[in-house]
Write a structure and sequence with these properties.
The chain is globular, with a radius of gyration of 18 Å. It has 7 helices and 10 strands. Helix 3 packs parallel to helix 5. By secondary structure, the chain is an alpha/beta fold. The protein has a 6-stranded mixed β-sheet with strand order 6-7-8-3-9-10. Strands 2-1-4-5 form a 4-stranded antiparallel β-sheet, covered by helices on one side.
Amino acid sequence: MSLIQLSNLSKLFHLAGEEIFALREVTITINAGEFVSITGPSGSGKSTLLYVLGLLDKASSGRYELDEIVTDTLLDDERARIRNQKLGFVFQGFHLLPRATALRNVMMPLVYAANHRVAFTEPQMRELATEALAAVGLADRISHLPNELSGGQRQRVAIARALVNKPRVLLADEPTGNLDSRSGAGIINLFSKLHRSGVTILMVTHDQNIAAAAQRRIKLRDGRVEADEA
């Protein structure tokens, strides 16, 4: 089933009087349950594409449909609601609250959800966050602060936070960029496990070995899709 549809999507920036295309007429369909890597050289448009897919930025032209919702004309509060309900984000920097435990960090999207739908109770939030941490192998680390965890463990907390709302899509931007090779391999193994359980994953990476873990690879160059292959 089609989950994401991009049609002739372009993103234009105006810089010092010049027009610079970060994306040029990108047309992609992504089905539910796929694990897709997005690769390309620096400046190819990888992160711009991910930010547009994550409703963190708007395209200049074209059409973006997410889970049968046409997003192009949505108001900011509608975009925020859909981000919270349908999308989970994992970044190169872990972006954890330093004075909050792993459990509290993972609970944050549930707290924000109160702005868009019926609020969860405290016990419900704790239960969902505990389940998410167990799913990434950190059931024994729920009371630890970020500085008490390794880099790989912190990224697993960030992944649990991204999954706690049970999003339709997990978006990852260089998720292994701040990790050593062993920790990075652990994160990719976790992504593969999540994919097998049915999670849809879109992952930006410059590392071809990391990209090879995905079932499908989209290569960008100069803002265009250069290749789309299994």
